[in-house]
Amino acid sequence: MAEHAPRRCCLGWDFSTQQVKVVAVDAELNVFYEESVHFDRDLPEFGTQGGVHVHKDGLTVTSPVLMWVQALDIILEKMKASGFDFSQVLALSGAGQQHGSIYWKTGAQQALTSLSPDLPLHQQLQDCFSISDCPVWMDSSTTAQCRQLEAAVGGAQALSCLTGSRAYERFTGNQIAKIYQQNPEVYSHTERISLVSSFAASLFLGSYSPIDYSDGSGMNLLQIQDKVWSQACLGACAPHLEEKLGPPVPSCSVVGAISSYYIQRYGFPPGCKVVAFTGDNPASLAGMRLEEGDIAVSLGTSDTLFLWLQEPRPALEGHIFCNPVDSQHYMALLCFKNGSLMREKIRDKSASRSWSKFSKALQSTEMGNGGNLGFYFDVMEITPEIIGCHRFNAENHKVAAFPGDVEVRALIEGQFMAKRIHAEGLGYRVMPKTKILATGGASHNRDILQVLADVFGAPVYVIDTANSACVGSAYRAFHGLAGGRDVPFSEVVKLAPNPRLAATPSLGASQVYEALLPQYAKLEQRILSQTRGPLE
Q: SUPFAM superfamilies of this UniProt entry (predicted)?
């Protein structure tokens, strides 16, 4: 796989839940090298399943920190053995699974700054961590700490306005609070707390890397407007926390030059820059090259919306982060649990298990579905918190069933109207230049994408996102190298491959859906009040 002609490049890393992966991207923005290490397969001695340890309580989920270090050793040795020319690497950046935290023991900085090129990293860093198994994003054991944090700042909405999200169990501040409460001695022997992203950057720097604004927004600790740690949140979580976190930095910052360890052991050039690492979701936004007003829709087992926001309105649902490629703007994430499994269930019931019949149903029914609206939640939805199937006819009366074709359209229109309503609830607005980027399984179905274009009133493009966090990290390395905040990210990535146009809004679509959307929102509120009582 190695290219033997010298090829100046940037590396993009991704320390994800199940693997560490790297891509090399050349100056024309072509990916010409990739390599990975899969934790369960390549490091079986750590005994992980899916890259994690699920504890007996079913709530606590951790990963061994030395597994990540050893994976980096293995991947660099693989690159060296393949003949990869490290001397051509101009800069590197990376992504980490969001929310996970690493606890560096007092004295660890000394070990990081004096690495010997004769030994692999994991042998030199094995005594550097006060916690060997670190909490990751799948952990949901901190409900008590979440309630304490919300109470300390005046409630869930107040916390969301401050930090971009209400308190979530996986968010790092709540994890730190639990460790401090349950293991105060371990906490006091910790000199630095890193996110997975800043931990990985620290390995390359040979010193502690700061946390970037974008990944720092997933902690319930950073004031997203002022981009400083919230004193109220820090105080509610643990003492002396600010000094253990260090000051946050813009996501496009060059945080330093690569450690001499990599220069001597692998042949990296002394001038190779390390650009701040960020979270995997922000890095994916960079990899998909979202611009102001754009929206990315991942249509998978669960459906996820990535939004570029100028003026966010934090709410009790969704997450708002600082934007990784433009520190003046924001991004939002909204997750919908009932995605492809719900689409498959309706396909099986109403379209004889056939995607082509499912498509024909969409083609043969009119936009707006004659006023027939449906809500389809097989499992308890996150956005909003509703379960069950709820159908309404044109008079807004609840009905038990729809004809097959009407059912199919009600499902797809309902899924996309919900996405638009909840996106607009966070401050998103469709603009004349808006592009929708669709990824995931359902993005291969042109008729589903047509409904998406019609409901949002914007063209839909499809894009290959197999390595979006890695590729986005390499793009961000080029951005940092080019001057970061002084240069628009879009200028740096203009040579990257363009997404493919898949659908444009039908004539008359905007009138149909502008009329239906308020009606759909009202019905959603009606179901919510009947099934669970109103949200807080």
A: Actin-like ATPase domain
